[in-house]
Amino acid sequence: MSDWLNDFEKQGWAELRDFITPEAALGIRTEIEEIQIQNGFKPASIGKHEQKVVDSSQRGDFISWIDSQTAPIRTRSYLDKMEELKSELNRHFYLGIRDYECHYAHYPPGTFYKKHVDRHRNGSPRRVSTVLYLNPHWEPTDGGELVIYNADQSSFRIEPRLGTLAIFLSELEHEVLVTGRDRMSITGWMLNEIIL
Question: How far apart are CA 59 and CA 131, in angstroms?
Fold first, then answer.
């Protein structure tokens, strides 16, 4: 079993540096910038269904959902890699993952996402959360780290460096710290049901 699978089994999360090449990551970032020019991003909301609300005191990112059928070419290559990852997780951990949904995310300077979970108690199909980072030349002083909390409230920080993939169980508490510069990513969830 590879190192990241061992980490995922032991702690419920893993950091995969260089998950995609710098060239591939920069290519996806260019696709994001083109979508932004077309006004394809909206303020992200919190809550589900009728309770959805935009609340910048909790979350400040802007998002654009990705349709696998119409995704740009470099994003499609990433989605293919996620299919392979999904199969690997099912093969090793029998998670029953059946689908994957994701969106582009842009955190402008000064934004954050306070502590939360992605898998809610009222029947969320989300099993595994993923974040692919698309930020060249990221420095520790730029902030914007993903903080994942263990059951004992100890934590681990993942810097949003170009080509790194964070992967973690969706029920784990996590947050995005305040970013000092534009922070781009693809955020996704592996689901135990098919998206229609």
Answer: 16
